[in-house]
Specification:
globular, two-stranded antiparallel ribbon, 3 helices, 4 strands
């Protein structure tokens, strides 16, 4: 977990805490304490261009790689699918 905590400071302006990663960390910590099995599914590169009537960007979200890393720190499963 200390490696996870160090990740919050890297890349933040002036060495401050990255609020976006910290929020994800706290949500995952809450899920870790709950009696659930967590499985996160990410869209792959062949995602649909329109979902529920909204245009979807083809590029992955800027937090995708860091969220996947956090999920592995917590021992949660995640998968990337080519299309849904």
């Amino acid at each position: 977990m200390s490696q996870c905590a160090n990740k919050f400071r890297s890349g933040a302006a002036n060495g401050g805490v990255r609020a976006d990663l910290l929020a994800l960390f706290h949500k995952l910590a809450r899920l870790l304490r709950s009696p659930t099995q967590v499985l996160v599914v990410f869209d792959g590169p062949e995602r649909a261009s329109v979902k529920r009537g909204h245009l979807v960007r083809k590029a992955p979200h800027y937090l995708t790689a860091e969220l996947q890393w956090l999920l592995e720190c917590f021992g949660f499963s995640w998968y990337t699918v080519s299309h849904l």
